[in-house]
Amino acid sequence: MQILQLVPFHCLQFPNMSRHEEPERLRPGPIRSRNGWVLFVRGLPRETRETDLLDAFSDFGYVQSVKLHRNLNGTAKEYALIEFQEQSDAQDAINRMHGTQFLRQIIKVDWAFVAPVSDQPSLPIRRGSF
């Protein structure tokens, strides 16, 4: 009969890593998507257009995509996903756009995908309902 021994996660060895280094996917903070760094923007006015967001956020760097979700009647759902190529550009956009007025409304800007701050490994946190 074989006995299965449970090993705490922090004792596992990963190839090409020092003993005290965590795999990058488990470090707290923003997580890169397949193509770039995604921001979650909320509090947008219903009349917001993709071009409005592109104009405002392209000041911080190359914007790969803007996804503004809409209701059946065509009005914006008050949130959008904006993907930057570079993490530093996305961070700059967060720092300068969060809490500012955009088309007469105060918007909130943060990372769309972040790794939780925890000792236990878990799935990334996804913000918003999409």
Quickly describe the structure.
Residues 37-114 form the RRM domain. By secondary structure, this protein is α+β, with helices and mostly antiparallel strands. Helix content is 15%, strand content 29%.
What are the SSEs and their pairings?
Blueprint: E1 29-30, E2 37-42, H1 50-57, E3 63-70, E4 76-84, H2 87-97, E5 101-102, E6 105-106, E7 108-111, E8 113-115, E9 125-126
Antiparallel strand pairs: 1-8, 2-4, 2-7, 3-4, 5-6, 8-9
Describe the 3D structure:
With 130 residues, the chain is of the alpha+beta class. It has a single domain (28-122), classed as RRM (RNA recognition motif) domain (Alpha-Beta Plaits, 2-Layer Sandwich), CATH 3.30.70. The protein is built from two helices and nine strands. The protein has a four-stranded antiparallel beta sheet, covered by helices on one side. It has a three-stranded antiparallel beta sheet with strand order 1-8-9, with no helix packed on it. It is globular, with a radius of gyration of 19 Å.
**What is the subunit arrangement here?**
single chain
- Number of separate structural domains: 1
Which percent band covers the strand fraction? 25-35%
Largest sheet: 4 strands, antiparallel
- What is the level-2 CATH architecture name? 2-Layer Sandwich
Class in CATH?
Alpha Beta
Low-confidence stretches: none
SSE sequence, one letter per element: EEHEEHEEEEE
Look at the helices and sheets and give the structural class.
alpha+beta
Overall geometry comes to globular
Strand order of the largest sheet: 3-4-2-7
- Measured distance between first and last alpha carbons: 47 Å
What is the count of β-strands?
A: 9
Number of alpha- plus pi-helical segments: 2
Report the mean per-residue pLDDT as an integer. Answer: 81
Based on CA atoms alone, the radius of gyration comes out at 19 Å
Assign a percent range to the helix content. Answer: 10-25%
Find the CATH topology: Alpha-Beta Plaits
